[in-house]
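Title: Prediction job returns without error message
Component: structure pipeline
Severity: low
Priority: P3
Assignee: unassigned

Description:
Job completed but the reporter wants confirmation the result is attached to the right record. Sequence as submitted:
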Amino acid sequence: MSKLREIREAKGITQKELAERIGVTDAYICRIERGTTDPRLSVVEDIARELGVSVAQLTDVETLEQGIK
């Protein structure tokens, strides 16, 4: 999820805070940000909700869709 760290830091939220809010470990958030694990859709939805963004914004789907057009 290419935008996770950028969005999280812009909102002033630490990995630990985000992890606690959605019920995962901060190590798991770190692995998602580094791209070494693929989270379940439910986790992506939880992260997006906590950060106040859409799943598309979080996963950069909008950029991918523009490249396809």
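Comment from assignee: result matches the submitted record. The radius of gyration is 12 Å.
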